[in-house]
Amino acid sequence: MVAGFPAGVSNGHHLMNTGDSDASYLEIGDRIAEDEAFYPDVDLQLVADGKGGHVFTHRDGTQYDTE
Question: Are the C-beta atoms of 15 and 25 separated by less than 8 Å?
Answer without folding.
Answer: yes
